[in-house]
Write a structure and sequence with these properties.
Blueprint (H helix, E strand, L loop, with lengths): L1 E9 L2 E9 L3 E11 L2 E7 L14 E5 L2 E5 L6 E8 L5 E9 L2 E12 L6 E4 L11 E4 L2 E4 L5 H7 L3 E7 L2 E11 L8 H5 L1 E10 L11 E8 L11 E6 L2 E7 L5 E7 L5 H19 L5 E8 L5 E5 L24 H11 L5 H6 L7 H19 L7 H15 L10 H14 L6 H26 L4 H9 L2 H26 L3
Antiparallel strand pairs: 1-2, 3-4, 3-7, 5-6, 6-7, 8-9, 8-13, 9-10, 10-15, 11-12, 13-14, 14-15, 15-21, 16-19, 16-20, 17-18, 18-19, 20-21
Helix pairs in contact: 3-4, 6-7, 6-8, 6-9, 7-8, 7-9, 8-9, 9-11
Length: about 500
């Protein structure tokens, strides 16, 4: 369910009112609460960024394009503006087969809930299982389970399965064989075969799976609030191709990418993720894809692509915790970023979403290795010493914020030492000193890289600097950095005097 929540304070008591909608919609909620004779309106976004509204009303009914709920408290009016996303649960029956053996068709049920992978349950086996062969005789049936790793691995290879269903043709890409628990009395389960497709294509048969050629991908990312800066209809072109935007009557923003190169399912997914990476770097927000569609080469129909990442319950809305304002992410910058991403090999996403909640050695070695990879791609691909790459990136970041690594002394050299100590398991320095160097390097490298990537993406130094000056998470990073430097100094002083 998508829920939004607000409270009304009356004296020292709070009354809570909730508007609920089905998982097929994303909503803007406006709550009107009379306040001393006048009504005040509270516009509310959906999802994790704005959970300030809600208790269930007694009843609700659809009125035109809106859902109005009557609450327990007659003084409160809740209006939910609904955006239909086509994210309703899927349950369909049909016949399914492997492209390797189209003559063998097996009846089954295909299901999917928003935010989850699809599941295909077949009445009988469409592919023979090497590790659990089924033998049927005139007197009964038996399954022999094998522990042979070769057979188990062979059964676990992802496969393409095709189907003709009541919803139309489907393609199950990267389908993995499952063995859900069963009880010994369920005879039908003995014959069944269960598959979890990581990607479900609705609308066509694509026998080659991820190798199928496409000419475009279009998608909706998160709620409309992130895209108010884009025109109702527009386009921008870069070396990567053409990006088109179109706002529907439901206010949802469609972005369409028509590449200048051959597109396949993996590169179509990469285009969607690239836009999400840009938003994470610039706005500092994790957005959720809601709808993805692809179009086969020389075909006119759009095909729905469904994965577990499409979860309408996780949509969000802009708030004061963002870094750059969403308005700074223009269509032209999106188009240019898609061109940049063609050479980044996913490294920008690694900087935007750094390793967290792991040992500091793991976080540090990953962050420090990004220095070399990102510098090669956005500054200079020629061979050079690591410290020169670190220094060049550091100079770009200092141009934007002269205090980004203050009070660290000789930052490029410290990062080089931390990287070498981690990569080569060096000895010779006290472990206490190494740990602080790793923490200092890991946290500061990620921010230096973010500023460099934003600059490379076309954001001006002034834009970025102004955003940093009012960004709470950046301020916490700066204070933590100062504390780590002080703690390291105190530790070294204690070691030199023999206090530790």
């Amino acid at each position: 369910m998508i829920e939004t929540e607000a409270t009304e304070k009356i004296g020292s008591h709070y009354k809570a009112h909730r508007a609920k909608t089905a998982s097929t919609t994303s909503c803007d909620v406006e709550v009107k609460i009379p306040n001393r004779g006048s009504a005040r309106s509270i516009p509310i976004g959906t999802g994790r960024s704005r959970r300030y509204l809600a208790r269930p009303g007694k009843s609700g009914q659809h009125l035109g394009g809106r859902l109005e709920l009557s609450c327990r408290y007659p003084t409160v009016s809740v209006v939910v503006h609904r955006y239909v996303l086509g994210m309703e649960p899927l349950e369909t029956t049909g016949d399914f087969w492997s492209p390797d053996n189209p003559a063998k068709r097996v009846p089954g049920i295909l299901t999917r809930e928003p935010g989850s992978r699809a599941r295909l349950t077949l009445k009988t086996r469409v592919i023979d299982e090497l590790a659990a062969p089924l033998e049927v005789t005139g007197t009964g049936a038996s399954i022999t389970h094998s522990g042979d790793p070769g057979r188990i691995v062979a059964d676990g290879v992802p496969r393409v399965l095709l189907g003709d269903t009541s919803e139309g043709p489907v393609t199950c890409v990267d389908s993995y064989l499952q063995h859900p628990p069963t009880n010994g009395f369920d005879v039908a389960a003995m014959f069944q075969q269960v598959w979890d497709p990581y990607t479900l294509i609705v609308g066509a048969h694509l026998p080659t799976g991820r190798a199928a050629t496409l000419d475009a991908v279009r998608f909706i990312i998160d709620s409309p609030g992130w895209w108010t800066q884009l025109p109702d209809a527009g386009s921008a072109t870069s070396a990567a191709g053409k990006v088109v935007c179109e706002r529907g009557d439901d206010k949802l923003m469609w972005l369409e990418f028509r590449p200048s190169f051959t597109l396949r399912l993996r590169s179509a997914d990469r285009a969607v993720r690239s836009v999400m990476t840009l938003m994470k770097l610039a706005v500092d927000v994790d957005l959720t894809p809601l709808c993805i569609q692809v179009r086969e080469t020389a075909q006119g129909d759009w095909l729905d692509v469904k994965t577990r990442n499409q979860d309408p319950s996780k949509t969000s809305w802009p708030d004061h915790h963002n870094l750059l304002p969403p308005s700074s992410v223009t269509l032209e910058r999106i188009a240019e970023w898609l061109a940049i991403e063609q050479t980044m090999d996913g490294l920008a996403a690694a900087a935007a979403n750094p390793v967290e909640k792991e040992a500091i050695q793991v976080q540090g070695v990953v962050a420090c290795s990004l220095i070399e990879g990102i510098h090669k791609r956005i500054v200079d691909a020629r061979e050079m010493h690591y410290v020169k790459r670190a220094r060049a990136l550091h100079e770009t970041a200092l141009r934007i914020d002269p205090e980004i690594t203050k009070p660290v002394d000789k930052w490029p050299e410290l990062v080089k030492e931390a990287r070498n100590d981690l990569a080569h398991h060096n000895t010779g320095r006290p472990f206490e000193e190494q740990v602080y160097n790793w923490m200092i390097a890991e946290s500061s490298v990620i921010w230096v890289l973010r500023l460099c990537l934003l600059s490379h993406a076309g954001f001006t130094d002034q834009e970025i600097a102004e955003a940093l000056s009012d960004h709470q998470r950046y301020k916490f990073y700066r204070e933590n950095l100062k504390m780590h430097v002080k703690e390291r100094s105190d530790e070294q002083a204690a070691l030199s005097t023999g206090a530790l």
